[in-house]
Amino acid sequence: MALDKHMNIRRFLTSYGELLEERKSWGPIASWRYTEFRQLSEELTDLTGVSVSYMTLIRIFQKQDFKRSPQLATLDALAKYLDFEDWETFCVQQDSPTIVERPAGKKQQDLNLAPAKSKQWIIGVLIFLGLILLFWFLSRVDRPVEEQAFVYLESVDEKVMVPEMFSFRYSVPGSGYFLWLKTMAFLPDSLFQPPLNTDGLKELDPQDSIFTWNADGLTFPGPYRASILKDGQVFSEADVYLETQEWIGVVRAKGREKSRQRFEPIIVNTIHNAQGQLDLTPSVLQDIQEHYIEKNYEVNYFFGRDFKVDANQMDFEAKVIVTFPVQLVNCKYVRVSLLTTNGMIEFPLVQKGCKTLLKTWVSEKTDSYKNRSMEQYQADNLSVEHIRVSTGDKRASIYWNDELIDEIPYNNLLGELRAIRFKFDGYGKLDDLRLSKTNGEVVYSSAFDDQKMGNQ
Fold first, then answer.
1. Using DSSP, how many helices (H) and how many strands (E) does the chain show?
2. Which domains can be identified in the chain, with CATH numbers?
């Protein structure tokens, strides 16, 4: 739906935001952090019984994303939070003229109107009521279809463990509705564009109410958003988080046989090896050498959980051991990704001569070698490398071997850290990982010294 069709929504939400600022005394909404939005989300749920995620609140009040109107249930909940009966009542009161009190001592006979003035007064009242009726009608037309047809979507479980399955409850009024599942980490809401066709979507049966999506083929633990779409329009959404018990390995490789000449994601076990490093099992490496084209595979390490840390105020460091058992790897590199509830921080360490791999992504900001110099992410050789990422004041600072190599500012809040990923072209290992808040409080660390399986 075009942006200009939501000017009423924009205007009323702006007025609402001003009233909300007065109620909460947290300062301007533009400066609120995710903690304030999360508290507001919890208060809305407790007061109204309607679940409104803090990510939705950020989208409404900070990003001001009006490509699709908020659902009527969300708007009604917001109105009730400020003691209005519903959203329509709030809008009508915002547009109502100010009532002027009658001056003290005014005599009743002074209010008697001459016949002509009485007629004008009646006509004025009718015009006013007509405008109210017209406003109500236009507001109903302006609402998206999902508010007129009963369409909803919710996740059965808020979080899912790999390799389980996502299950969603839904209700659609007829055929032609599809479910789309996308990772919030790799496609932040600010860059979201609904697909124009049904490729990769799952059609929903209007006679059913539960849909299950096999998570085994989703190789990126972290935050996901499910959407119901029809003809490219989003009707309803639900958030869910794909988590892991501990570190898992995901190997993507091309098989030697012609029928397997595509990257196949395979979830594998990880171990803490004798050197105190996060590693793959020897049997996995042997299987790669025997059945896959050695120069066309990658090793990923994932850990997905709610780390209970604000990704906008954190410090993350790790040691990566870049190991290539074969010389056929064309471009040696490792890519580090910190996946959050509203985007990600991602950067590479690249062997010189492979500039096409030079890409960074922080919140809504993406960069590559095409639009700025990224020589600082390259080295003649990669071996044992220490990396660190520090965030604060909407800025990500990236360190390589204790040297600050880049500072990337961003505008959209990242939300909470929900998953960590290391991607090696070929093969690599991890060691000495540490995650802390900017106040120094450590929320996760591992030296991988105990020789236990990280994922059974």
1. 7, 25
2. 3-97+121-144 (no CATH), 152-243 (2.60.40.1930), 248-446 (2.60.120.200)
Radius of gyration of the chain (CA): 28
Place of tokens 């600082």: 376
* DSSP 8-state symbol, 22: H
HSE-CB at 273 with a 13 A cutoff on CA atoms is 12
- Count of positions (residues) in the chain: 456
User: How far, in Å, are 64, 69, 90, 446 from residue 49 at the CA level?
Assistant: 24, 21, 19, 40
Question: How would you classify residue 263: left for phi > 0, otherwise alpha for psi between -120 and 50, otherwise beta?
Answer: beta
Taking only the tens place, the pLDDT of each residue in 304-341 is: 888 999 999 999 999 999 886 545 556 778 999 999 98
Closest CA to 144 of 9, 241, 27: 9
pLDDT tens string 64-86: 655 556 778 888 889 999 999 88
For 327, the 3-state DSSP assignment is coil
Q: Answer whether 0.85 is exceeded by the pTM.
A: no
d(CA 268, CA 137): 57
Which stretch, 145-149, 292-296, 328-332, 428-432, has highest mean pLDDT? Answer: 428-432
